[in-house]
């Protein structure tokens, strides 16, 4: 069985096993937004055993009309509050937002494959 994930319309493929080698580059680095929908907010709060309002206050901030997960500043970098450096994984993996579940197959990267390759060691040419 192949370890390579392909998605129609994308000029690259992805090897998920490479995640073990990269130290969470998709969860760390430059500051950005990790948008969550209302449904995702409720799912993450439930996974964490938290009241949704408590979850929102502790882990979210509003950007325009959307909500984003907070980040932690670590040295000269940023990381998602749910990134676990010790395990190189996501503390909310089962309920992670769509933005995280769909990486690296984002529309943005269709024309920026070199940028994606510099960030993600799992990107391979098709």
Provide an overview of this structure.
The chain is an alpha+beta fold. It has two domains: 1-26 and 103-126, no CATH class; 27-89, no CATH class. The protein contains four helices and eleven strands, in the order E-E-E-E-H-H-E-E-E-E-E-E-H-H-E.
Distance between the termini: 17 Å
Helix vs. strand class: alpha+beta
Strand order of the largest sheet: 1-2-11
Provide a count of the helices. Answer: 4
Order of helices and strands: EEEEHHEEEEEEHHE
Give the rounded overall mean pLDDT.
Answer: 95
Record field, number of beta strands: 11
Whole-angstrom Rg: 15 Å
Quaternary organisation of the protein chains = single chain
Task: Summarize the topology.
Blueprint: E1 5-6, E2 12-14, E3 28-29, E4 35-36, H1 38-48, H2 52-59, E5 60-63, E6 66-69, E7 71-74, E8 77-80, E9 83-84, E10 89-90, H3 98-101, H4 113-119, E11 123-125
Antiparallel strand pairs: 1-2, 2-11, 3-8, 4-6, 5-6, 7-8, 9-10
Helix pairs in contact: 1-2
């Amino acid at each position: 069985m192949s370890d390579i994930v392909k998605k129609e319309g994308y000029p690259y493929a992805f090897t998920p096993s490479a995640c073990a080698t990269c130290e969470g580059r998709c969860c760390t680095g430059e500051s950005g937004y990790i948008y969550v929908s209302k449904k995702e907010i409720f799912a993450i709060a439930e996974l964490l055993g938290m009241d949704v309002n408590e979850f929102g206050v502790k882990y979210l901030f509003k950007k325009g009309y959307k909500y984003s997960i907070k980040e932690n500043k670590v040295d000269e970098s940023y990381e998602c509050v749910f990134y676990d450096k010790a395990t190189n994984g996501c503390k909310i993996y089962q309920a992670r937002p769509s933005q995280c579940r769909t990486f690296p197959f984002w529309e943005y990267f269709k024309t920026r494959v070199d940028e994606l390759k510099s960030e993600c060691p799992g990107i391979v040419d098709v």
